[in-house]
Amino acid sequence: MEYISITYEYILYEIYEWMKKWIQKTNAEQKT
Fold first, then answer.
1. Residue 32: enclosing H or E segment and its boundaries?
2. Model-level pTM greater than 0.90?
3. What is the DSSP code (8-state) at residue 1?
4. What is the mean pLDDT of the chain?
5. Distance CA 32, CA 17 (A)
6. Which stretch of DSSP H or E encloses residue 30?
7. 32 CB contacts (<8 Å, ≥6 apart)?
8. What's the N-to-C CA distance of the chain in angstroms?
């Protein structure tokens, strides 16, 4: 059970990091 929760948190973190990069990319495109 612990392993599953750790993996779940890791996946959420990866998605969060990916979303931040995607948002920055989108904002950069909108500025130009």
1. none
2. no
3. -
4. 87
5. 24
6. helix 2-31
7. none
8. 47
